[in-house]
Write a structure and sequence with these properties.
- With 147 residues, the chain is an alpha+beta fold.
- The protein is built from one helix and ten strands; from the N terminus they run H-E-E-E-E-E-E-E-E-E-E.
- It has one helix at 9-36, and strands at residues 52-56, 65-68, 73-79, 82-87, 99-101, 104-106, 113-115, 121-123, 132-138, 141-145.
- The strands form two sheets. The chain has a six-stranded antiparallel β-sheet, with no helix packed on it. The protein has a four-stranded antiparallel β-sheet with strand order 5-6-7-8, with no helix packed on it.
- It starts with 8 loop residues before the first helix and ends with a strand.
């Protein structure tokens, strides 16, 4: 009767741990790649160099605002005919703001709130204001140029 060769427990444990580390490292690389792939897509997101046409200015209520989620832009109208545009990416954890309510741009993740006139932090853990973009109205449509 032949016996199977003996393997030392330390070698088996080491092999298992090295294999697990390799799997975790590969999974981390995939997760990071998955997070960054959206910015390389051909959509007209906030990374575009030229103006982004967001449609009719009438979509932005006076004293409020509209989040253009696909473009990662929020446009507000603090007073009649005065439009402001900001990045919709919260400066705290990078979540996309989800609404403009009570004259504040609101982030759903951790409760940060930003002013509609200047994007300044009014509440929450966000460390800095939302980055401002250039906005114009051309032929009744909003044109936003990300900075």
């Amino acid at each position: 009767m032949s016996e199977a060769p003996e393997t030392s427990p330390a070698a088996s444990r080491r092999t298992l741990l090295c294999g697990a580390a390799a799997v975790l490292a590969a999974g981390g690389a995939v997760a990071v790649t998955g997070c960054s792939s959206a910015s390389s897509s051909g959509s007209s997101g906030s990374s575009a160099k030229g103006p982004v046409d967001l449609g009719p200015a009438s979509a932005v209520p006076e004293g409020g605002g509209t989040v253009f989620r696909d473009q990662k832009i929020v446009v507000t109208q603090p007073t009649a005919g005065q439009y402001k545009a900001f990045s919709a990416k919260c400066t705290h954890a990078g979540c996309i703001v989800d609404q403009v309510k009570n004259q504040q741009i609101q982030c759903p993740c951790h409760g940060s709130r930003f002013g509609i006139a200047d994007g300044a932090v009014q509440d929450g853990p966000a460390p800095s204001p939302l980055p401002a973009y250039t906005v114009t109205v051309d032929g009744g449509n909003l044109k936003v140029t990300p900075s």
